Amino acid sequence: MLASLVLEAIGQKGAAHAALWRRVINDALPGVGDAVVGSRGDGERWGVWELFPDNVIFRKIYGRTDYSQANSTGSRGVRVWYSLYPGRYLVHAPESWGSTDRYICRVMEGGEIVREATLGD
Question: Can you give the pTM of this predicted structure?
């Protein structure tokens, strides 16, 4: 059975602009966009990744973005809905602009989400 997980994509619009500018700068001067704007990993404050049994990331899971409760600038209220099959996942769930809850969870056969471990920064 699938489980449903929803995360608030705090600063989603800003992250999208940063990714665009990083790509534009890297196209003109390879590597400079990563140095100036930051690497792709720096912008991934939220997300879900499927894990191998030894806690190695297998693949990124893409969710459905919902703007129905977003503010006018898209900086708050943007929700990303994930449908997860049974297995283990790494989750980055923003709690505020400066704090992200990082944890490993397991989705059980019945669709329950069980938190296994909390990760530090």
Answer: 0.72
Alpha helices in 32-121 (DSSP H): 32-37
Tokens in use for 114? 């069980």
Phi and psi at residue 81, to the nearest 5°: -100, 130
| 50 within domain boundaries | yes
| Digit-coded pLDDT (tens) for 12-68 | 655 555 666 667 777 777 876 666 666 555 446 678 999 998 888 899 999 998 888
SS3 28: helix
CATH code of the domain in which 69 resides: 2.60.40
**What is the three-class DSSP state of 22?**
helix
Task: Answer whether 44's CB lies under 8 Å from 35's CB.
Answer: no
By residue range, what is the domain housing residue 90?
A: 3-11+41-119
Q: Number of folded domains in the chain? A: 1
